[in-house]
Specification:
The chain is of the alpha/beta class. Bound molecules: zinc ion.
Length: about 300
Amino acid sequence: MKVRSSVFASFILILEGIGVALFLRGFFPVPLKSSVSSKNKLSDLPVEPLTGSSHNSSRLPQPLFKRVVIMLVDALREDFVFGPNGRMYMPYTRHLVERGSSHSFVAKARPPTVTMPRIKALTTGTIPGFIDVVMNLNSPALLEDNLIWQAKTAGKRMVFYGDDTWVRLFPKHFMEHDGTTSFFVSDYTEVDNNVTRHLDSTLKRDDWDILILHYLGLDHIGHISGPHSSLIQPKLMEMDDILKKIHSSLISKEAEGSLPYLLVLCGDHGMSETGSHGGSSEPEINTPLVLLSPAFKRKGKPSNFA
Ligand SMILES: [Zn+2]
């Protein structure tokens, strides 16, 4: 009898070991062992879906846009643009969403809703793991296949201003960059001014193809005083003014080039009712994704907006 119970105990022990191992394997997935060869090449282009022919696989598809500006506002909640707050504090953006040539969506961020895993998810299209939360403060260069690497390989000239996580993930990809540390959470003014101060001169220049801006101020306000704080209003208005500045500049440049521009406004994650993020509550995962371009026909009847 004694023997049988000890066999049973060791069996349970082994089973528990396997269970713990399986849990850890799922919770901290083994990072992809990447090398240059794991990155997709032109020859990997899928077959044309309509014709089924693979004629196009040897050459790049024609570009749809001349320049792309990505304005990422950290912790931009979906209702900050699409809700009543958006109507009041982001009137220009809201006007474009409702009446301009735009496509807008509510983008669902997969938890963990933390900046570094979210940037990885946005640029690689993969789902972040919980291990990325641990790595959030010490992000090594991203080796997986990603949009930024592909754009650089395709000869696109990229400029980046904002959260220096991007510079750590993509150390040699930008022709020009100015990273801002997100370490000083109490600062919600200088982090953003450090991005905006470059805008006037950069928007005038013609030597870049992709401009990426990552604004941290709104996220910091969330951490300090939450999504209903009185600091949110001026910050959203500031972001709206910046979007207006970029949009106006792109419109004025439009006549010079043959291809249209694309302006993207997005968030990396939202903000909970207490102003934090990381979890999977609706306000944390729902972010706005607004694509603006004259390439998208104006919606409904012609608007007065010019
Ligand atoms: Zn963030």
